[in-house]
Amino acid sequence: MNGSELELALKDLVETEGVNASAVVTREGVMVAFCNKHIPEMVSPFSTVVAMMTRTAEKCTRLLKKGEIEELIAKADGGVVLTEKSGELIFLVAVDKGVDFELLKPQREKVKAAIRSMV
Taking a C-beta distance cutoff of 8 angstroms, is the pair 24, 8 a contact? Predict the structure, then answer.
């Protein structure tokens, strides 16, 4: 797979009912791919914030001796943001409140497969 396949996998995920946005960023905060329904273009500090959130969560789990982070879940009154490490990249998906992440698993796995093949 290549970058265009990653973008296609993100687009398919975002076209799913209840999914608002999805992104892949580097640990340094560089945007690799971004797809969303609501904002016509990516907000510039977004990728940096995603990387900072993930690195902060990693540090917390290590300091508290809870092992390596698997995913970071941010719940808000309007929905949920799930952030996962995928190799050296970070994969994020934002969904409406009440959406079952297990139902999105096949599309999420396609995105992660595209990420793995790029690295």
Answer: no
